[in-house]
Write a structure and sequence with these properties.
Blueprint: H1 2-18, H2 23-43, H3 48-70, H4 78-84, H5 95-105, H6 125-129, H7 133-142, H8 145-150, H9 152-169, H10 173-196, H11 201-221, E1 236-237, H12 243-246, H13 252-257, H14 266-272, H15 274-280, E2 285-286, H16 289-296, H17 313-316, E3 330-333, E4 339-343
Parallel strand pairs: 1-2
Antiparallel strand pairs: 3-4
Helix pairs in contact: 2-3, 3-11
Length: about 350
Amino acid sequence: MNGTSAHKPGAELRRGRLFRVEWPTLALIAACYAFWFWAGAFLFPVMPALALVLMGIAVALHSSLQHEALHGHPTRITGVNEALVFLPIGLFYPYRRYKHTHLQHHADERLTDPYDDPESYYRALTDWQVLPSILKTLLRWNNTLLGRISIGPALMITGFLISELRELRAGDRQVRSAWLQHLAGLLPILPIISLTFGIPLWLYAITSVYLGLSLIAIRSYCEHQWSERPDGRTIIVENSILAPLFLNNNLHFVHHKQPRAAWYELPALYRARREEWQRMNDGYVFRNYFEVLRAFALSVKEPVVHPVLQRGEAETRPEMIADQAFRPRRFRINIHGGATAPIPAEPKHE
């Protein structure tokens, strides 16, 4: 009897956690869809340009909410979370494919690897060497912030769809299932856009969807860099007017260290250990995205070719790339937390 009574509170606690709902996230999901629908149904007929811009903001927010859902929010029930962000107002990316690749990306020891990190913008040396010159030029421009915003979404969509077609032709059942689920979500969305809103699908795709992806690209542009220490590969952008749109994922290092923390918990987690977080990630810190813009608007942040990993023969013979060794971007932190000046990376200790 005592064993039963001792077990019961634990079972109730587990059930309570299972059915716990994060109401701020749930409310934001509802608000995102409502805002998107209002802009399309009521604003577009009278102010079409503004409506398309606002719908683009909704697309970006929806992407951030999908990111929350795949990390176990706003409930602890996977199917419920997926259903809440199921409708693909961003059109191009199946939620389940995003979830699969993003959770792979969270293996911090493989961050930035051209093959093992699905979200890496680096290319393997052998792949780079066979690319056409025009594509090399585009990829270099894509490594500037203005390039990432302007051509980044087009390159990303094209590369993603080519990769997915390759997987589908190879008979990958998981990929096929994800796309079937995605197409089911498009069945109501496409008629709503074209018939209810009266927006041509091509116009919605090249304006609202593209804008939404460009906004997200501001965040993802500098999220990661190569560093020999995995903790030095992930950024902290302390403050930004875009933080609500990114659901505080500008504090990206904190998110990688505590991926189950809800978006509204991240600022307090960062403030509580600010100096420690900055030491842990080797000072890869910017005060805001304006600093990122000033530094990299037209300047390449990093080489396209990964400086260390996946370099073929050079990877097994470090002396071949000793003269080309890439130094991770580390910053001297001033009293306000801003990134003031690059300082040399410390050499690897043997």
